[in-house]
Amino acid sequence: MRKLNTLFDHLINTLAVIAGIFIICMMFMECYEVVSRYFFHRPTIWSIEFCEYMLFILAFLGTTWVLRKRAHISVTILLERLKPRTQIYCNLFSSFMGIIISLIIFWFSLKTSFENYVVGVKVVKTYALPKWIFLSFISLGYLLLLVEFIRQFSGHLRRLELKKAGKKTS
Description:
It is a single chain. This protein is mostly helical. It has two domains: 1-72; 74-170. The protein is built from four helices and two strands; from the N terminus they run αααββα. The protein has helices spanning 2-38, 47-69, 84-119, 131-169, and strands spanning 122-124, 128-130. The longest helix has 39 residues, at 131-169. The chain is elongated.
């Protein structure tokens, strides 16, 4: 199990690095667009569209890393004022809700992605690209979030058990 956790952490880190590379690529593409448009009067037709696609994809590549690092926005003013055991129960509840929501979105995005693949739906802007490709990133992102929420839920359960065991012995 420890090796599986390490492998999962490595996957999350790799996807977060890819998301960071996407941000750097988007920056260079937009700089190229500005220079080509205003200095050479030859704008590109592809840069904004590809930046939109990359922004969409990077959101689903990086969210699990953010969740694991607990770097997302959260309201802790109330949680910090609660007793430690109550904090654990609140964390269990939020992890459980994350599991349920991630499972539902994963399932429906996977189903929709498959349906779009079968029908052959395309996103048509400057280029016509298969829509299922973009929908599959939603599935991947929520599958990874599902696994991370399960990991966090089990970690909170372990902390609760340790808390209970500590109370019984004291």
